[in-house]
Amino acid sequence: MAQPGHAVVIGGGIGGLTAAVALHRRGLRVTVLERARSLQPVGAAISLAPNSLRALDVIGLGDEIRDLAAWSGDGGLRTPSGRWFSRSSAEAATQRFGGPLVLLPRATLIERLAALLPADAVRTGVAAVLSDSGGPGRAARVTTPDGELETELVVGADGVRSVVRGVLFPGHPGPVYSGFTTWRVMIPVPGVRFASHETWGPGRLWGTHPLKDGRVYAYGAALTPAGGRAPDDEKSELLRRFGDWHDPIPAVLAAARPEDVLRHDVHHIAAPLPAYHHGRTALLGDAAHAMPPNIGQGGNQAIEDAVVLAHHCDDLAAYTAARLPRTTAIARQAVRAARLSLMSSRAGIAVRDTAVAALSRAKPALVLRSFDGIADWAPPQRPYASGQTPAGNR
């Protein structure tokens, strides 16, 4: 028999834990089932924009994360030789969107989210299967190695390869390869000072950003067939692809050990789902709308999903109505951004860089304008823990 006021969250990543906290704050008892043996995230750092920080304000975590994170935004775009062709301003972004863009380790965010849950809420090392999505007058059911759970709500937050999504929508084609792979490192690089940047080369890009704890978060991406791996190690692969690019990239690569480098192919959901719910089960984050990382909104949208789901947990159709159009549009924008930044035609690159540089000089706000409707989003819940009114609601 379903326990009154109980929700089961399948997946203990950022979206799943945010949903668990938001549902817990609404008064539900929550159980988080995570397949991995710990909550240690796969990944290095995460960039949080004003939209997701406002969502974290709803659960009382926004100000703490602002304090723990590095405030970013000053920097811009460079060519492999080091020439700046577009500059960005953290102050301008903060003024336009009513809050900062921040960067922090994923592990820090996971740790702070988990700390807001009861001690017995999270179960790791549990392979959970949705056996019944539930419906009117019928509980949802989740099967685990320890038995079956009946519950009023199931949240599928189990990532881009979501098993829950496959149960809800078995005819959906699932994720597709985005055409590129990514590398990430998060390491100390003593004695190196630099401005945050993303550098675009032919079919490749690199980003370098400082963290508040003194470490450096850096990432690379390159067009490559799916499933590829370096013949030796991934650090050597990065040296081959980026070793002759501008400072501080060589210093970052020199400081990295082979075991520091994470490599993952990128996949996204190209065909939108018909809904983000079925019966008493809802999807969020990559399980619902996986997108390329090129506008930095994947994790941000998962956090948005989580607080909106908690707001509409008694009406999942309203959750779908609130989230599906927005996330579909943002995912499509991320695909376009990936194609632009990873362009491989030298003639096309010359036109792109010249156009971006000209626009940045003539109307700097045009670059920020591409995030209108994204970074200025405000969640439906009140009040905000920070006491700040979101820019979008002034």
TrEMBL record:
InterPro entries referenced in this protein's UniProt entry, alphabetically: FAD-bd, FAD-dep_Monooxygenase_BioMet, FAD/NAD-bd_sf
Segments forming a coiled coil: none
Keywords attached to this entry: Monooxygenase, Oxidoreductase
One Pfam family linked to the record: FAD_binding_3
Residue span(s) of domain FAD-binding: 8-311
GO function term, MF aspect, one: monooxygenase activity
SUPFAM superfamilies per UniProt: FAD/NAD(P)-binding domain
Gene3D superfamilies: FAD/NAD(P)-binding domain (3.50.50.60)
Protein's recorded name: FAD-dependent monooxygenase
Lineage: Bacteria, Bacillati, Actinomycetota, Actinomycetes, Kitasatosporales
